[in-house]
Amino acid sequence: MKKDREAVKGELRAEYKRSDFPEGLVREQYSKRMRESSNIVVLKPEVAQAFPNGDAVNNALLSLIKIAKKSAGLTKANAADVKKRTADQQR
Predict the structure, then answer these.
(1) Average pLDDT for consecutive 10-residue bins of the chain (91 residues)?
(2) 44 by DSSP, 3-state: which?
(3) Are 43 and 56 spatial neighbours (Cβ–Cβ below 8 Å)?
(4) CB-based contacts of 51: which residues, under 8 Å, 6+ apart?
(5) Start-to-end C-alpha separation, the chain
(6) How far apart are CA 39 and CA 76, in angstroms?
(7) How far apart are CA 4 and CA 15, in angstroms?
(8) Distance of CA 55 to the CA centre of its chain
(9) Of the four, 11, 18, 23, 81, which is 20 to 30 A from 62 by CA?
């Protein structure tokens, strides 16, 4: 049984012609756009082991965001309360 000839790197397949590509052949012409628009995040192996799937990661991160917003709100409230007490004590 005869094997098909493997395509040489950079060689066009027989069904394509250079005239089909008027701008020329550009290697990785879309790679920059893909990197900018991609939402793929690569986790460190030890982090990936802690979560069974993507939903678990999303839930953990959403919970962390909620806690951060709540604690930031408390910090602002505490700062306003301290400011008010300091002003009352100075009177």
Answers:
(1) 61 77 77 82 91 93 92 72 71 66
(2) coil
(3) no
(4) 43, 57, 60
(5) 100
(6) 32
(7) 15
(8) 15
(9) 81
57 in Cβ contact with 51 (< 8 Å): yes
HSE-up (13 A, CA, CB side) for residue 16 = 10
Contacts of 57 (CB under 8 A, 6+ apart): 43, 51
Helices (H), the chain: 31-37, 45-50, 54-90
Report the distance separating Cα 24 and Cα 19, nearest Å: 9
Closest residue by Cα to residue 50 from 61, 40, 66: 61
- Is-contact 57 43, C-beta < 8 A? yes
Angle at 48 between CA 51 and CA 36, to 5 degrees: 115
Quote the pTM value: 0.45
Contacts with 76 (C-beta within 8 Å, 6 or more apart), sequence order = none
